[in-house]
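[09:14] KT: can someone run the structure on this one? pasting the chain below
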Amino acid sequence: MIIVPVKEGENIDRALKKLKRKFEKTGVVKELRERQKYTKPSVKRRDAIQRAIFIQKLQSEADK
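[09:31] RB: done, structure tokens below
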């Protein structure tokens, strides 16, 4: 459970912003979206490899 302490006189909008930020950091929404559909392990592996290749290309271009 995510808890956001709200100080006396603090704006509600600021507290909501903190809650949203904490939600994003924990990855709850991302996990829920991922669980809505089944993805085969082979597809997950292929996506991970493609992502790693893309990141490696970006890093090699930045080094040049």
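[09:33] KT: thanks! The helical segments are 12-26, 28-35, 41-63.
[09:34] RB: yep, looked fine to me
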